[in-house]
Amino acid sequence: MNLTAMRYKTYVWPHNPRVYVTRWRRTVAASKVPFGVSALTDLGQDCRVFSGEGEFVGKNAYSEFKKLVKVFESQGPGILIHPVWQSASAYFVGLTLRQEPRADYVAYSFEFWEYTDGYGGALVKVKSAQTAGASGAAAGTRKTYTVVSGDTLWGIASRYNLTLNALLALNPQIQNPNLIYPGQTITVQ
């Protein structure tokens, strides 16, 4: 099977890395409660991490590695064309030289973190429920959601097509956005 060449920003690997690892991770917060148990709160999925190992071989191996270093030193995210997974916007966060460099052989490892603008970009001014009521909106138009186990504020905001900041503006009673409880009522409109 012929795989596409791995690419990131302007750099194209002359031959694909030997090892690819894609990792998914979920952040979970544990809050200690009486009698030795903990309540777990799902804070949502973290970014995917693409990592691996490879070698440059041949008379220009070390100069090829230096080209990769230049790309690593450039700032901002870029498009990662991965030979195995779909392309993704990512930050180049790790590059390791795995042995003493030789002119004809360089072993290296790399790490990319997927970049998603999950919070919807810039902050947006949103009318709070109190301001909306003062402007003539009927009290009956307010919509609420009851939190169930496993919910996160980010997930609730996404479900109702809101940014996290907009949801927090509708719910000034929430002091810690990382801590919500099953049975809690959240205003969503």
Written account of the structure:
By secondary structure, the protein is an alpha+beta fold. 17% of the residues lie in helices and 34% in strands. The strands form 3 sheets. A 7-stranded antiparallel sheet has the order 2-1-7-8-9-6-3, with helices on one face. β1 (7-8) and β2 (11-12) form a beta hairpin. The chain is elongated and about 75 Å long.
Q: What's the gist of this structure?
A:
This protein is α+β, with helices and mostly antiparallel strands. The protein contains 4 helices and 11 strands. Strand 7 and strand 8 form a beta hairpin.
Radius of gyration: 23 Å
SSE class: alpha+beta
Estimate the global geometry from the Cα principal axes. elongated
The assembly state of the depicted protein chains is single chain
Rounded mean pLDDT is: 82
Physical arrangement of strands within the biggest beta sheet: 2-1-7-8-9-6-3
- Please report the distance between the alpha carbons of the first and last residues: 51 Å
